[in-house]
Each structure stands twice: as structure tokens, then as C-alpha cells.
Amino acid sequence: MKLDIYLNWGKAWKGSFIQNLLADSLTIFWGDWLELRVRIAQIAASGLVSPLIYIFAFGFGLGSSIKPGVGIDSAYGNYLEFMLPGMVALSSMAICFGGTTFSICGDRLFSKTFEELLLVPVHPLALYLGKMMAGVARGLMTSAAVMLVAILFTGKVWSFLNPLFLLVLLLNCAVFSGLGALVGLSARSLESVGLANNFLIVPMSFLGATFFEPSTLPIALKAIVYILPLTYTSIGLRSAAYLPITQFPWYSLPVLLIFALALAAIGANKFASQQD
Known about the structure:
The protein contains 12 helices and no strands. It is mostly helical.
């Protein structure tokens, strides 16, 4: 009898904790959303510049000399088709990371309002999740614009709007929003943010399988490329867009989820010990 009481109490406490955590996370997210919603067009357009440059320079320029079966799998119609999912991955990474980092840095280093956030009586994980969700919203806005461009160039609507493609994209946004939150909490100046961008995001933009097929690399380079979370996003998005579901690399989903959960644990601990 006592065991049943303890089990029921444990279930009720667990349910209450999750409900409170979700409610608190949405509250933190709503504070950022009130600012984001008036800049939706600006946010969506800001992430289009780099992908469009890459599309015209590589997709139409260099891509004209790369044929299916030579450098890329014969399953893709042309090199432009091959790289478009990578552009979705790249743009979502850049906006999620940059937007979250500068949002937290702005509150910490300039407006000096971050201390008020730390005083809010919510779980540190809720603070992390709320900021991460705001970063995900930024990434999805930009990704939607890039996906629209991809649909216009390929005419393949379902390739970029199917549930598996959107799931991989959502996980990628969660990973890089979380990484941006950690950098934002750790940065002491804008120069340190620039260093993080130069040493993390810029190399990953070119090494994260956005422009090439990792299977064609030497083993030593494969080891480096497969450490990067963007690699799994690029592979997953490309497969979800064009290949049969039987050829989808299912390992990419748990890998991205592990990255996201690890960042959540580190982020919650960072928020709990943050002093500004």
C-alpha cells in the first residue's frame, strides 16, 4: 500500500515538474518572441545573403563542372540540387548561433538586464530552454526563406517540407541555439564572440558536408568531419529531401539529439552558476 502511495506521489511530482518547466520555458521564450515578431521579415532576409551567394557561386558556377556520378551521387539531378539542403543547414546554424549569442551578450554586456533574468524564480533549465527556443524560432524563420528559394530552383515542394526533413532541421536549430547560448553566457566581450564564430562556425560552414559528400574523403579527414554536428544535419537533410526513406541515415537523429541534450545539461548548469 505504501509503495503505491510513493509511486503515485512520484508520478504526480514528475508530471508537475515537467508542466512547470514547460510553462516557465514558454514564459522566457515569450519575452524574446515579443521582440522577434516585429522583425520576422528582417530575420528571414538576413540569413538569405550567404546562401544566395553560395548558390550562385557554387551551384551555378562551380556546379556546372560537377556531374552526377562524378563527385556526387547519381541520385541527385545536378550539383545545385545536392547543395541546397546544405544551404538550409548552414543558414539555420548561422542564425541560431549568432542570434542567440548576441541576444544574451546584448543583455549581459550592454543593456545590463540579464541580472533580472537570473533573478526570475524558475529552474535554470527553463532559462536555457526559453533562450534556446527563441534561437530555434530565428533559425526556422531563416530556413523557411532558404527553403522557399530551394523549392523555386528545384520545383520539389515535398522534398523540403516533409516531416523527416523538418525534424532534422528542428534538431539542428536546437543544437546551435544551445551552443549559441553557452557562448553568450561565457563571452566577456564582442571580440570573444568573434573568435568563437571564426573558430567554430566558419570552419563548420565549409567542413560540415554542405558542399561535398563526406564518403569521398580520406579516412583521416572523415574523422574530423564526422565530429561536427552540422555534418549529420547536412547528410540528414539531403537524404530526407531526395532519397527513399529506406536509405535515410537514421543514426543522424540520435547523434543530433545527444548533442542537444548534452548542451541542455551544460546550459542549465551554466545558468545555475552564472554571475554577472
